[in-house]
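Q: Hi! First time doing this. I have a protein sequence and I read that you can turn it into a structure. Is that right? Here it is:
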Amino acid sequence: MKTIISVSVVVFLFLFSGKVNSQVSSKCKEIEWKNGSEAAKKIMKSNFYYDALDSWSPFGSDMGHDAYYSYCHWKKEHLNKDIRKFMESELIDLGYPGFDLALTSNDSEKLKEIVNSMPNQYVELNAINNTVISLAFAQLFLEGKVDPKVKEWAEAAFSRESMYLEFWDSDKERMKEREERMIQLLNDLRKSKS
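A: Yes, that's right. Below is the predicted 3D structure, encoded as structure tokens:
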């Protein structure tokens, strides 16, 4: 009986050790300048990119942070899959399957109609936008380039965000800061290769 228990303990510890080691090795890179691709190090120079508490950073909001880690894990399991599959899954998780990620503020009436149909209106649109923007910068950070389709979606997300700048804060100074940050992010995104 002692032998069976001893063998069971050894087998359990061996299996547990293997599981822990595989989880550690499958972890994503921490979002720090030193861990980024060479392209990210050249483009994502500003400290805010790596500030987990900066809600205007691509990874600072809850949605952006979650999108980074979701993409990192998804990419490891789906190396050759189309990025559309990842975003389809994310949109389903957000409760908006089929949302047109290419929709810009140029079609403001359609955008307003969609936002008005959302239970939490702009809050939900912002979650979609933050996810897309985070995905673009996650690709740049991890891979050194941004998929052309993701770049198109992110540019559209910035357009949608600019239409609702006043939603979060009626303070003109804070709105100006937010607008300046979005311009910087968009300009940095456009520096990336596809």
